[in-house]
Design a protein that fits this description.
330 residues; alpha/beta; Peroxisomal Thiolase, Chain A, domain 1; 27% strand; binds oxa(dethia)-CoA
Length: 330
């Protein structure tokens, strides 16, 4: 039976692998770049990299454990787990969500699935969680964005390897006394799939410096086209979201935008007329962590978001996909 109760985010958590790599690393491995170029063009100074024995599901479990610790819902109350990732533990199956269920030691019946919407994955997953709970198909969901993107980049390609990092963020979603989700706006444009995709690549190099197998699938990006398209879809999506909710941008307290480029965030702030100080920013420390980016930034900012604050989450990424969510913080 559909519920009339408010549905919102109950608690959040995040996890970053221990290893932290600064911009001068790229010079030390022989790339024709500089720490200054990377920071000035992207805003990134450091990113975290998973160790060889850390799978995406391990980062996801770290984030989930923190989300359970931070809130009143325990893991055995969860009805479903959704993991948004472009870097699942296994190509094909089982899903990373099933591995998270196993690693959390959950033996009760839990629905587990992964979704693929690149950097929009977490917000797509949140909207799915909302729909499931709203329609009565579960009371509490664990929604995770988790990535090991360092394994999807060619560390000899200076156009991409400088941008990405590993990490995870998680949210427990369920019924709340008041507030919660107000509106959703999301979409995709498959005609732009070619500007950011994974293609068979020869002579690609791993983080360790060892070669990848020939023809391995690696991230390829037309940086400038992604930059322009990203700003356009985020501004369009936010404009529609606010208009449909009949909310003025002055009422927004916090914006958690996908952390792809500091200059993209600044441009969105300017075009939306929302002060940059209201944007949560951690790209300088963690780089672009794709589906983990929004929940990681949200969890890091949790201490400064007050109950009742109006929050926007907005993502964009390969597909091309975009997704924005308006909610009152609980
Ligand atoms: O999750 C969503 C995904 N990604 C994004 O949102 C990324 C969006 N795009 C961007 O963030 C930016 O386009 C980049 C940071 C990737 C690149 O910045 P840009 O200002 O757009 O640089 P560009 O691609 O126009 O390249 C300018 C120059 C080129 O040299 P030439 O052709 O002018 O001689 C590049 O070859 O900079 C060169 N370049 C570099 N130089 C030093 C490209 N990468 C590097 C590098 N270090 N790492």
């Amino acid at each position: 039976m559909p519920t009339n109760k408010c549905i919102g985010v109950i608690s959040v958590g995040h996890f970053l692998p221990h290893m932290c790599v600064a911009n001068d690393h790229f010079v030390s491995i022989g790339l024709d770049t500089s720490p200054e170029w990377i920071e000035s063009r992207s805003g990134i100074r450091t990113r975290h990299i998973a160790s060889d024995n850390q799978a995406t599901s391990d980062l996801a479990v770290g984030a989930a454990e923190m989300a359970f610790k931070n809130g009143p819902i325990s893991s055995n109350q969860i009805d479903f787990i959704i993991v948004a990732t472009a870097t699942p533990d296994h190509i094909g199956f089982p899903s990373t969500a099933c591995l998270v269920q196993q690693k959390l030691g959950l033996t009760h019946s839990v629905e587990c699935l992964d979704i693929s919407a690149a950097c929009s994955g977490f917000t797509y997953a949140l909207s799915l969680a909302y729909s499931k709970i709203h329609s009565g198909m579960g009371q509490y969901g664990l929604v995770i964005g988790a990535e090991t993107l360092s394994r999807l980049v060619d560390w000899s390609d200076r156009r991409t390897c400088i941008l990405f990092g590993d990490g995870a963020g998680a949210a427990i979603v369920g019924t709340v006394d008041s507030g919660g989700f107000i509106g959703f706006n999301q979409g995709a444009d498959g005609n732009c799939s070619h500007i950011l995709n994974c293609l068979p690549t020869e002579n690609a190099v791993q983080f360790s410096g060892k070669p990848y197998p020939p023809g391995v699938s690696m991230i390829h990006m037309d940086g400038q086209s992604v930059f322009k398209k990203g700003i356009q879809v985020v501004v369009d999506s936010l404009t529609q979201l606010l208009s449909e909710a009949n909310i003025n941008s002055n009422s927004i307290d916090h914006v958690v935008c996908h952390q792809a480029n500091q200059r993209i965030i600044s441009s969105v702030a300017k075009q939306m007329g929302i002060p940059l100080e209201k944007f949560v920013i951690n790209i300088d420390r963690v780089g672009n962590t794709s589906a983990a980016s929004i929940p990681l930034a949200l969890s890091e900012a949790n201490a400064r978001i007050n109950p009742g604050d109006t929050v926007i989450l907005v993502g964009f990424g390969s597909g091309f996909t975009w997704s924005s969510i308006l909610l009152k913080w609980n």
